[in-house]
Amino acid sequence: MVAIQFYAVPPNEPKQQRKMCSRNIKISVVLFLVLIPLITALPHNNHNLSKRSNFFDLECKGIFNKTMFFRLDRICEDCYQLFRETSIHRLCKKNCFDSKWFGECLKVLLIPSEEISKLQHFIKVINGSPISFPQSVPT
Ligand SMILES: *[C@@H]1O[C@H](CO)[C@@H](O)[C@H](O)[C@H]1NC(C)=O
Ligand SMILES: *[C@@H]1O[C@H](CO)[C@@H](O)[C@H](O)[C@H]1NC(C)=O
After folding, report:
1. Which key words tag this protein in UniProt (predicted)?
2. pTM of the entire predicted model
3. CB of residue 45 inside a 6 A radius of ligand 1
4. Cα(122) to centroid(ligand 2), Å
5. What is the per-residue DSSP string for 62-83?
6. Alpha carbon of 68 to ligand 2 centroid (Å)
């Protein structure tokens, strides 16, 4: 009985539905107009963000060696290119490359273990503190 009442169509239903439908379209158009500038603004922000991140912004406390720094930075760039995810880019560089995300990026980028040992040394120099990202370098 309840179900029948629920599905019973009131006489004014089609008209109301049409009205609601056009209102939804209006809302969609407004959302669309608001979202477009936001979306187009996003890549700019990301771009500036990535350009700006440097030794000091990342709060690196070690010794700045351009070769080492850009090699580590490159890992995060490649990782970002793979996923196109801004948060990955940020997390990878977190704590001056000393995060589990950097380790995850090394894994997905299939960096060979000799290279990882080298990069671990780079982080030690650049970061100024022992690395803590999970590693399993075969000896
Ligand atoms: C990004 O950088 C460009 C050039 O350096 C600058 O013109 C623009 O205003 C910046 N955008 C933001 C959102 O900071
Ligand atoms: C920076 O690191 C590279 C690679 O380990 C090394 O060859 C170079 O001599 C270093 N440069 C400085 C200025 O320490």
Report:
1. Cleavage on pair of basic residues, Disulfide bond, Hormone, Membrane, Secreted, Transmembrane, Transmembrane helix
2. 0.57
3. yes
4. 10
5. S---HHHHHHHHHHHHHHHHHH
6. 7
Domains of the chain (ranges, CATH numbers) = 64-134 (1.10.2010.10)
Ligand 1: which of 38, 40, 42, 44 to mutate, most ligand atoms within 8 Å of CB? 44
List the structure tokens of 17. Answer: 């539905």
Please give the chain's pLDDT, 139 residues, in tens. Answer: 544 555 555 555 555 666 667 788 787 877 777 776 666 655 544 554 544 457 777 888 899 999 999 999 999 999 999 999 889 999 999 999 988 899 999 999 999 999 999 999 999 999 987 666 655 544 4
Polymer length in residues for the chain:
139
Please name the residue that has the structure tokens 């771009």: 47
Tokens of 23: 């209102």
Amino acid at residue number 84 = R
CB of residue 54 inside a 6 A radius of ligand 1: no
DSSP letters, 43-65, are HHHHHHHHHH--TTTTT--S---
